[in-house]
Specification:
- With about 140 residues, this protein is of the alpha+beta class.
- Helix content is about 25%, strand content about 35%.
């Protein structure tokens, strides 16, 4: 069973570039909406990360623009947890809210870093892994 969460947003005027499509630099903001929803589902969003004593920088982001998003278009952004034991790898699909047509595919990788020392962990903290596994076991 894959863990996922969806977020929705409507394309605003300020999202557009001079060609009247969403400027490519705005897509990470859309991804963050879905990543936040996924981390909320895990009860491990940024406040819980900070409390745990770790920070989770995004160290890699890949985006494939399939079709442009346009003004007033409803976007559905799905974030799916792909890996969680040594790093957080999340896959994303941005689709048209009306038709379900794929607009964008993306993925991010976040690594666990000790907040005080800046030391990189080669695994994820046990409390995070336990939260993921608890959701996996739910019917």
């Amino acid at each position: 069973m894959q863990l996922f969460a969806d977020a929705q947003t409507d394309v605003q005027f300020y999202d557009l570039d001079p060609m009247q499509v969403v400027w490519h630099g705005n897509y990470p903001r859309f991804l963050e909406l879905a990543r936040g929803a996924l981390l909320d589902r895990l009860d491990y969003n940024y406040p819980q990360m900070a409390t745990s004593g770790y920070v989770w920088p995004v160290v890699d982001m890949q985006i494939k623009y399939v079709k442009p998003a346009r003004l007033a278009q409803r976007l559905v952004i799905r974030a799916t947890l792909l890996e969680y034991e040594n790093r957080i790898k999340i896959g994303y699909r941005i689709s048209d809210g009306a038709s379900g047509e794929l607009l964008t595919k993306a993925q991010t990788i976040q690594l666990c870093v000790h907040a005080e020392t800046g030391e990189l962990r080669l695994d994820c903290p046990p409390d995070f892994i336990a939260k993921v596994r608890a959701l996996h076991e739910k019917p």
